[in-house]
Amino acid sequence: MPMSINRKSKVVAEILERAATDAAFRTLLLTNPAAALAGYSLTDEERAALSDRATLLDLLQ
User: Fold this and answer.
1) For residues 6 and 35, what is the distance between their CA atoms, to the nearest angstrom?
2) pTM over 0.85
3) Per-residue confidence of the chain (61 residues) as pLDDT tens digits?
4) What's the pLDDT tens digit per position in 29-43?
5) How does DSSP assign 30-61, residue by residue?
6) Is the dihedral of CA 22, 56, 12, 50 positive or negative?
7) If you count Cβ atoms within 10 Å of the first and of the last residue's Cβ in the chain, which end, N or C, has fewer?
8) CA dihedral sign, ordered 15, 21, 22, 23
9) What is d(CA 44, CA 26) in angstroms, rounded to the nearest whole number?
10) Cβ distance 45 to 39 under 8 Å?
């Protein structure tokens, strides 16, 4: 089951936009989320949700 995430967060929106438009970043996010998210200031909950493949795929639909 996908995790919950605050889609209104500016940084989350930025990451999702980048993942939707940048294939290389999307691939990195799906295969190595720690590396993809390293430069972003996220809460532990946001980082966990964006690192969860099911949640990320759900958010990108």
Assistant:
1) 21
2) no
3) 455 566 678 999 999 999 999 999 999 999 999 999 999 999 999 999 999 999 899 988 8
4) 999 999 999 999 999
5) HH-HHHHHTTS---HHHHHHHH-HHHHHHHT-
6) negative
7) C
8) positive
9) 20
10) no
